[in-house]
Design brief:
228 residues, 10 strands, 8 helices, single chain
Amino acid sequence: MEIQILQQLEGAKQAKGLAVIIDVFRAFTTECVFMANGAKEIFAVGEEKIAYALKSECPDYILAGERKEIMLPGFDYGNSPAKIKEIDFTNQTIVHTTSAGTQGIANASYAEEIITGSFVNASAIAQYIKQKNPKIVSLVCMGKAAVSPTEEDTFCAEYIKSLLLEQSYPLAQKLARLRYLEGKRFFRPENQEQCPEEDFFIATTPNQFDFVLKAIPDKRGFHRIQKI
């Protein structure tokens, strides 16, 4: 098994084999919470106009997502796991668009299979990959707005790689560092509406969920996220 760690949008475009599109803060942490709270499926879309079009076709769909961390106009939710963790989404369909994570899914056109990546289900991801045993695993760190690297996504990729290789990894120390790196924004008083402090703790609590989220291409040009 060849394991490669790639970065941002260009990395997604280069991903081959089984691609893990990683967005810890916060797209794929949030999607895990949606699914854990009963959502039937999630449409991961790169463009805002697609999200609005899907909502127009199916008014019962729930819109979630952000640009520059701010909830989009007319959306039901932003991209905060803390703000949805107590909500029942049983049998609901979510339409999700973000600045980084869903962009990676939309652009991983050469990958044979796409799953999402975050700390909250990292062990399940590694177990799934071991079962599939692909020739190539592409761990794609989407970073900030898909254009600059961030430590949390790189640490997550390194952790998943260590699990695949059955090597030790200083996870606790790495997670603790994040509070003083990209995670700083979750502790600023002026950010609490769009980036509540609790988001940081949800996103950095590893292995809360025992499922994997797989992105299945839809003939309409986006991806359907399903729990497996």
